[in-house]
Design brief:
- By secondary structure, the chain is mainly beta.
- 12% of the residues lie in helices and 33% in strands.
- The model has no long low-confidence stretch (mean pLDDT 93).
- InterPro entries: Anthracycline_SecMetBiosynth, Glyas_Bleomycin-R_OHBP_Dase, Glyas_Fos-R_dOase_dom, VOC_core.
- This is VOC family protein.
């Protein structure tokens, strides 16, 4: 996505990425993991403890995140909007959302030729998220 050119902050250093990790809250862990595994065609590694359960989006570099069930992690369709990478064409992911209990709020929409496209959906747990792709 777009943004403004990077400049140095008051300390004279620049931050490359302002997001370092994300967590998508869930109530039904198994259903939520199935939802993301299905729409992205992945197999999320899981760690389940007495306190929480997490399923990790597979990454080799860049920003990572997880689906989490834990005290205080409550799904919501309000608040910050996380844009997930939709790959080469976000419709490849978006077209699977409704198959596993999600809902499309905004279909694939052009931002600009340079910035690409976005779409907004509600996942199987009620979280509002977005997808982004260049094409």
């Amino acid at each position: 996505m777009g943004g403004i050119p990077m400049s140095k902050n008051k300390n004279g250093t620049a931050i490359k990425d302002y997001v370092s990790w994300f967590e998508i809250p869930a109530i039904d862990f198994k259903q939520a993991v199935h939802f993301y595994n299905h729409i992205f065609g992945i197999d999320m590694a899981q760690k389940i403890t007495d306190v929480n359960a997490m399923a990790f989006f597979p990454v080799t570099s860049g920003i990572g995140g997880a689906v989490i069930v834990a005290p205080g992690s409550i799904p919501s369709d309000t608040g910050p909007l996380i844009y997930l990478n939709g790959g080469k064409d976000l419709n490849n992911v978006l077209n699977k959302v409704e198959e596993v209990g999600g809902r499309i709020v905004m279909p694939k929409t052009l931002i600009s030729i340079d910035a690409g496209y976005f779409a907004i959906f509600i996942d199987s747990q009620g979280n509002k998220l977005a997808l982004h792709s260049k094409n």
